[in-house]
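in:
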């Protein structure tokens, strides 16, 4: 039981003894800095139940807690009861927590809930870009956090490896590639394929212009451009399993997968399973038939199948074309059903997808619910905002996208430049320097993106992300390295806890450390890595303030010194755990 849970129980016991009533819950907060106290009971929600003025209710509860030795003092400010706890409460199980490298982490067991998180899901016609970076970092971090809350997590993605956009890259490579390969070109395979996606668009635009100049309407020209018609033909050939087209498709997709693997490795993300749309696109037609039989769907005169969701505040939605081919939602229906069928232990599924797909997921979840799948209420859409740049939007087909690999290299070079300017790398080998630059760069990138609430848009500034001061990854990493330097000078040893009387800064740090497990649970429930990022930043600020104003190695007493070394160790462990949940590594030296 952590401190907050403990004081909550004390308050509930006090209410029971004073009023002979037991409220369903009480609201406990950290006491604000301008008031004396450690924890605060918000009295207002209790007024109706306990019948009295908030000041009187607070005073009666405070008197009981002091008289029974649960708190040392209290004060009531309007409807808030601020309570002070003694040092012994803060120091209970102190050394055990301080040395526990997994403090606050709940390790899942075979009996734990199974949760699936789907993220990344790129197209195989281009490399990963900045938008994919946010998606992957969110998906991986959410997976880490949900697991740390005690759940078994399955990390998954569906690769969009079929469709007209894939054929565009294939047609362009056939026409203009002259047999070029990633090896002959000296570039990653996903970059090579993306190059030909851009090449297709260049020729497509030129052909549209030529047709328009010849008198054709622009909309018609877009449909009749020869290179576009060839891409459509190739898609039909792929669907008919034409051997030559399948061979080309497999070869170019193979190049892309090799490129993706390198990017994923550098980003530090991974998956437990990978599905391919070329396999899943056939799913869902049986679900449509089931829905027709149940009267959930209806068929129009042209043979297309729809669902009417206007009574639910949505629109009518096509679920099967008149020619019997599926649309995206058909596949998503089939894939969801397949996942719960193939993984009987699965209790929850979260899709990490940008907010431009909000409507799609509302429709998907509602249809599954109308079809009678009980697990439909366990589906979640982690809807995140787009990533903006100082120079505007990204467009893959025009080649103006911010490539993920280029972005990581840019941040690496910035981290290297700033680290060299600071001049604290004496004794490092070149390999050690390179490893440090990489750790700082990836920490900067990940923290800058994950510290923002997923629902909000981000204006990404690579230079700002690598700042060693303020709310940044390198600032937090540096605090961890500072503590490791301190602990290398002297390790904590056994001491007499009973002699320690905590000052306010020490209490605040322990109080924050005690809140780590609850923060993980809240971040898991809300699918928000930003809560972990904000938590660890607050912890780091508290520790740095404490360190600047309180001597550790030169403390006035040996017991105080060892207590503060243990406290520093606990902070370091919690920083490391917090950053690990964000997918960020920590350097031992900086």
């Amino acid at each position: 039981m952590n401190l907050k849970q403990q004081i909550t129980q004390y308050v509930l016991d006090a209410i029971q003894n004073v009023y002979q009533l037991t409220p369903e819950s009480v609201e406990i907060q950290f006491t604000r800095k301008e008031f004396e106290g450690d924890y605060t009971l918000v009295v207002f929600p209790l007024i109706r139940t306990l019948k009295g003025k908030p000041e009187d209710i607070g005073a009666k509860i405070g008197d009981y807690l002091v008289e029974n030795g649960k708190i040392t003092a209290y004060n009531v400010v309007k409807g808030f009861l601020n309570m002070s706890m003694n040092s012994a409460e803060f120091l209970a199980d102190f050394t055990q927590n301080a040395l526990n490298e997994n403090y606050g982490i709940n390790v899942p067991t075979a009996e734990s809930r199974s949760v699936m998180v789907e993220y990344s899901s790129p197209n195989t016609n281009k490399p990963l870009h900045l938008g994919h970076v946010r998606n992957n970092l969110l998906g991986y971090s959410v997976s880490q956090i949900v697991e740390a809350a005690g759940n078994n997590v399955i990390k998954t993605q569906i690769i969009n490896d079929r469709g007209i956009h894939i054929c565009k890259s294939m047609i362009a490579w056939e026409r203009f590639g002259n047999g070029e390969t990633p090896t002959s070109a000296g570039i990653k395979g996903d970059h090579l394929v993306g190059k030909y996606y851009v090449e297709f668009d260049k020729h497509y635009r030129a052909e549209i212009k030529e047709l328009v100049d010849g008198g054709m309407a622009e909309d018609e020209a877009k449909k009749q451009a020869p290179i576009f018609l060839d891409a459509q033909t190739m898609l039909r050939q792929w669907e008919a399993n034409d051997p030559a087209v399948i061979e080309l498709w497999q070869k170019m997709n193979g190049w892309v997968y090799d490129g993706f693997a390198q990017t994923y490795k550098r980003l530090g993300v991974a998956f437990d399973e990978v599905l391919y749309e070329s396999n899943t696109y056939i799913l869902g037609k049986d679900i449509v038939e089931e829905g027709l039989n149940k009267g959930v769907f209806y068929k129009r005169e042209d043979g297309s199948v729809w669902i009417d969701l206007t009574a639910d505040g949505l629109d009518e939605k096509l679920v099967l074309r008149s020619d019997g081919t599926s649309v995206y939602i058909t596949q998503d229906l089939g894939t969801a059903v397949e996942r719960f069928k193939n993984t009987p232990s699965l209790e929850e599924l979260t899709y990490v997808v940008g907010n431009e797909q909000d409507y799609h997921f509302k429709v998907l979840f509602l249809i599954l619910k109308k079809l009678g799948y009980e697990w439909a209420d366990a589906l979640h859409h982690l809807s995140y905002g787009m990533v903006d740049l100082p120079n505007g939007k990204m467009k893959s087909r025009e080649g103006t996208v911010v490539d993920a690999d280029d972005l990581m290299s840019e941040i690496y070079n910035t981290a290297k430049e700033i680290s060299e300017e600071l001049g604290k790398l004496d004794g490092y080998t070149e390999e050690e320097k390179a490893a440090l630059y990489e750790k700082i760069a990836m920490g900067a990138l990940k923290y800058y993106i994950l510290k923002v609430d997923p629902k909000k848009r981000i204006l990404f500034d690579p230079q700002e992300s690598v700042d060693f001061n303020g709310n940044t990854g390198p600032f937090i990493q540096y605090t961890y390295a500072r503590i490791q330097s301190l602990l290398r000078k002297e390790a904590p040893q056994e001491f007499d806890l009973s002699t320690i009387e905590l000052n306010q800064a020490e209490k605040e740090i322990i109080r924050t450390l005690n809140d780590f497990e609850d923060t993980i649970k809240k971040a898991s429930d809300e699918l928000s890595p930003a809560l972990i990022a904000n938590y660890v930043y607050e912890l780091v600020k508290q520790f740095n303030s404490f360190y600047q104003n309180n001597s550790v190695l030169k403390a006035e007493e040996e017991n105080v010194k060892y207590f503060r070394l243990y406290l520093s160790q606990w902070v370091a462990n919690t920083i490391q755990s917090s950053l690990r949940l964000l997918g960020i590594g920590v350097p031992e030296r900086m």
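note: Residues 392-399 have pLDDT under 50 and may be disordered.
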